[in-house]
Amino acid sequence: MAAGLVKRVLLASPRGFCAGVERAIETVERALELYGAPVYVRKQIVHNAHVVRELESRGAVFVSEVDDVPEGAVCVFSAHGIAPAVRDGAAARQLRAIDATCPLVTKVHAQARRFAADGYTIVLIGHAGHEEVEGTLGEAPEAIVLVESLEDVAALTPADPERLAYITQTTLSVDDTAEIVAELRRRFPAIRGPQTEDICYATSNRQWAVKAMLEQVDLLLVIGSRNSSNSNRLVETARAAGVDAQLIDDESEIDEGWLADAETVGLTSGASAPESLVRRVCDWFRERGVTEIDAAPTVHEDVVFRLPVELRRPDRSAA
Q1: Whole-number Cα distances in Å, 7 to 18, 185, 219
Q2: For the domain 19-102+305-312, what is the CATH code?
Q3: What is the pLDDT of residues 244-300, one digit of tens each?
Q4: Do 191 and 156 form a contact (C-beta atoms < 8 A)?
Q5: CA 155: distance to chain centroid?
Q6: pLDDT value, residue 195
Q7: CA triplet 102, 48, 135: central angle to 5 degrees?
Q8: How far apart are CA 314 and CA 123, in angstroms?
Q9: Any alpha helices (H) in 36-118, and if so which ranges?
Q10: Percent of the chain with pLDDT over 70
């Protein structure tokens, strides 16, 4: 079966797993080694269906809430962060809680607590319903207002415009967020922000890598699950520049109709997608006669996060 006119596949760099995702997955694997199956995980440890199925096959049990975990069992909190109420619920059930929250998300939570303690109204730029946003909102629900768009900024009427601060979800579009922050600063010149931007290094790097390759490709394929925020942002980055882009969980979701007018296909993967899926998509193209598979210039990422303290001190019995 032919793959249209495709002659070349160009791989973005960097792509795939970030340090926070690697840490979260290793946390579940290490907990299974230390305590044996089952290890319960609140929500998807990272937003990727393949990763979740692999961990399930090894004894991880994914649940919606801590109330679904048997009392006294081992429970891992996902990389996206949790509200304090979740931590309290785990303690009430005497769970052996292990917190795999990405340290960059933890930083945003700390900022929310500090701004709230100082009496600021906090504008949280993010997507309603995303687990990371839900966790951050839970840090200071009475002080945080969620903003998703420029229209939301226009509707803002803070009680004291001089006591306003903003924080952001870590997996947003760099460009869209910059627009929202610029409008916040225009409307509220006294607004305070984080000392360093909240959008994580991996999200930013993967978006810049896509931008750098767009002039060379006719179609961008992004490997990532539907609920992966950073993967969806990669698709949007390409489409905003006028390049067709499609989100796929794996090679089985490639529609050959997308390739009809594509001579060069760009390929990247979200921060929760394993590199094995990239290899599978490359093999899919090879099976259809594409021999030119090249990597864009590599950007090295050397960020590493230590495992949660609960695993560095495994005798600790509760959160």
Answers
A1: 30, 47, 12
A2: 3.40.50.11270
A3: 999 999 999 999 999 999 999 999 999 999 999 999 999 999 999 999 999 988 778
A4: no
A5: 28
A6: 86
A7: 40
A8: 38
A9: 49-57, 84-92, 103-117
A10: 97
Give me the CATH topology for the region 104-187. Answer: Cobalt-precorrin-4 Transmethylase; domain 1 (3.40.1010)
Query: Which overall architecture, per CATH, does domain 8-17+201-295 show?
Result: 3-Layer(aba) Sandwich (3.40)
Measuring CA to CA, how many Å separate 250 from each of 2, 200, 228?
A: 18, 25, 14
Cα–Cα distances in angstroms (integers) from residue 122 to residues 173, 178, 198, 231, in the given order? 20, 17, 14, 27
Structure tokens at 195: 């000392």
Domains 19-102+305-312 and 104-187 share a fold: no
**DSSP SS3 for 15:** coil
Q: Give the active site residue among 131, 132, 139, 236.
A: 132
115 SS3 class? helix
- Unique residue bearing structure tokens 């995702």: 21
Whether the CB-CB separation of 40 and 78 falls below 8 Å is answered with no
Half-sphere exposure of 264 (CA within 13 A, CB side): 15
For residues 45 and 56, is the Cβ–Cβ distance under 8 A? no
Q: List Cα–Cα distances, 241 to 221, 255, 265, in angstroms.
A: 15, 22, 15
Res. 303: pLDDT tops 70: yes
**Whose CA is closest to 151, among 123, 128, 183, 191?**
183
Q: Where are the domains of the chain?
A: 8-17+201-295, 19-102+305-312, 104-187
Query: Do residues 235 and 222 make contact, with C-beta atoms less than 8 angstroms apart?
Result: yes
The answer to whether 132 is a known catalytic residue is yes
